[in-house]
Amino acid sequence: MGWIVRGDVDGFFGLALDNLVQLLLVETLCQFVLGFPPELIYGRVLPGAAVSILAGNLFYSFQAKKLAERTGRTDVCALPYGINTVSLIGHVFLVMLPAKVLATRAGALDPARVAWQAGLLATFCSGIIELVLAFLAERVRKVTPRAALLSTLAGIALGYISLGFLYRTFARPIVGLTTFGIVMLTYFGRVRFKGRIPGGMVAVGLGTLLSWIIGIAPVGPHPATASLHLPVPVIGDLIAAIGGGHLLPYLSVIIAMGLFNVLGSLQNIESAEAAGDSYDTRSSLMVNGAGSIIAAVFGSAFPTTIYIGHPGWKALGARAGYSVLNGAFVTIICLTGTLAWIAWAIPIDAGMAIVLWIGIVISAQAFQTTPRAHAPAVVMGLLPGIGAWGAFMAKSGLHAAGLGGNAAPFSDALIAEFAKSDVWIQGAFSLEQGFLFTAMLLSAATVGVIERKWVTAAAWCAVAALLSAAGLMHSYQWTPDDTVLRLTPAWPFAAGYAVMALLFFCAQWTTEKTGEEG
Questions:
Q1: Which residues pair with 485 in a beta bridge?
Q2: CA distances (Å), 188 to each of 85, 185, 200, 361, in order?
Q3: Distance, CA of 84 to CA of 308 (rounded, Å)
Q4: Which end of the chain lies in a sparser environment, N or C, as judged by fewer CB atoms within 10 Å?
């Protein structure tokens, strides 16, 4: 099998477009949500992302070439690799934005840098978790129900990805609905345009054209002349992040994201095996974790992972070369500052339909790949993520109304005001803290109940009680413009989960089957 074949070109366009959308999302969120200056985005974040993506793509392409040589086959396709969308969103809204808000409240001279350092630490720790779990992935997968893992992921996808970009789609319907129609046609309809033009390319191309016509492009001022930005290790900032106390407040996010990346990558390796390409699980996952560590060391605050979609790229004829081409493409646009010109010319609206599709597919997968009887557990796992997003939207609405900050700080008085509309906002704020743990544990306990495995269900609730007692779930405190995790015991929740655990444990003696099977 040669390094480059005709199908690698088709595969490259698809994978490179996917990576490009992620990079545009990184650039947009870092600039407009986190307030990162251009020198931080283009001098540190993007070069770090380039190093990690290039290293991973080269490994997986080499891995595919070796598999082809070992088996004598010419149809081996490399595992796709890039920045994880869900981790990207999670790190921005659940780690870096809260860190920036806290730094601003504390009077830090450079809140944006504090936020970046928090993202570096989260990425580094996520990589460590992935690296360690490469040796335990199978055991973790067997212990944790699939419904618990996928539904927790789907809750983030529905709120922070799907609904967020759905609002933007309907805010700018000419671009949003047109591009989403193309995505629906090609991705949901499983057809392609004649001439083998990738649907994603058509969507972004037409979306860009419409954006220029209606005046939402170009985005921002004309970029400065592109210049070379070589990756530089940022060990000092990583050490500062550790000393800044960014680990415990965001531990639930870090652990959950690391676990999701491992299990999601494991599922993608299994998907590749089902398509005929059997790769070594441990080495694949180890490189997956090493990529995130490399990203953090060189300045990127976003983990990288094995992508979903191997069977699709293989069906297009992609082999090993599409991965090499993708790594080279990402490296060039990140190190030369070319992404600034692309972001200037192509608004995120042109590619948001693809991100919206990703959120829909992730949510649908939670139902499609779990046993039908576990559907209630999937819904249970969805609710905390949607609830946390609702709390985020409520606080955003308060900010838009001029509340928050030293002039009109958040306080318990808000609870009474929301209660007038029968909105139990204190429940939303409690649910928001450690919601990834809440989603996973409640969904897993629900699976145990559905299967009448009472001890298992009780064990999951006992874990929830312990985490609540440790202050990692449900415990929050007011700041002038936010509610944030408070690392003190949430005793009412610990007691509630403990009672649930006792109830389920005793069910083996206190209940009997009704004879009705769901």
A1: 476
A2: 19, 6, 12, 9
A3: 10
A4: C
